[in-house]
TrEMBL record:
PANTHER family: APICAL ENDOSOMAL GLYCOPROTEIN ISOFORM X1, APICAL ENDOSOMAL GLYCOPROTEIN PRECURSOR. Pfam families: MAM (PF00629). PROSITE patterns: MAM_2 (PS50060). This is MAM domain-containing protein. It comes from the Eukaryota. It comes from Ilyodon furcidens (goldbreast splitfin).
Amino acid sequence: MVMYTHQFGPRSGGLTVLVADRLIYPVWERGGALGDLWVKAEVEIVSNSPFQILIMAAIRDFDYGGIAVDSIMLSPECRLSSENSTLEKLPNPPKHPCIDDPEKMCDFHPDCADAEDETQCGDFSYAEGSSGWTDTSIGSQGWILYKNSTTKAEYFYVAEAAGQQLTEAQTRTPLLGPTGPACNLSFDFALTGSLDHIGELSVRVIDSLLGLRPKLWEYSGKTGAEEEEEAAWHHADILLGVRKNRFQVKFHYLLLNLF
């Protein structure tokens, strides 16, 4: 299925496509605001039973913005079915947040049992930390989360996306902070491939009041040979420092001549 989405402004909470056959399950999602433009999305649907497609959107309580979907196209292999499918069971409702004040989510101070309010904030030291990152790419390259079911290893990588513009691949955290002077971002990264200049990776902060801030860090070119995977990984530490306002951390990556 191909569609175009418009996710604009602070009201835009997120968009999800679900499939209902014997169960209801998500097959695609995109969170947050992408700007005042239409972005192409491709959704892969695989089912051995008659199914229905559900599109679900969430908006926030803000003055402007919203979510829209247009130009939905199904592949020629899709056919209308006269069969009636019955759900084996309804999905469990989402858990109620352990804390009502959103300002206390991801503020680096555990307020709930088992630090539940801090587990999906982008910190990979938490089991669900990786789920805190949201791909906000709008062009032909985007970030994908890789999970190894055997080793439990997780990392993000840049791959081809459905968009039609050559723009940066972008991924960001939820709103974080405020922070003190010792706040630090630590991560490993690898830039490999057949091109001599493989592209540029950078880190920026989006201040909730001041907007996008200048680059805190950047790296251009290769970190090593693709066949020497372990040696290609480098380590970086970036001082975020004092942030009085809530903020998001954002990774940008632009790889020219990717495909």
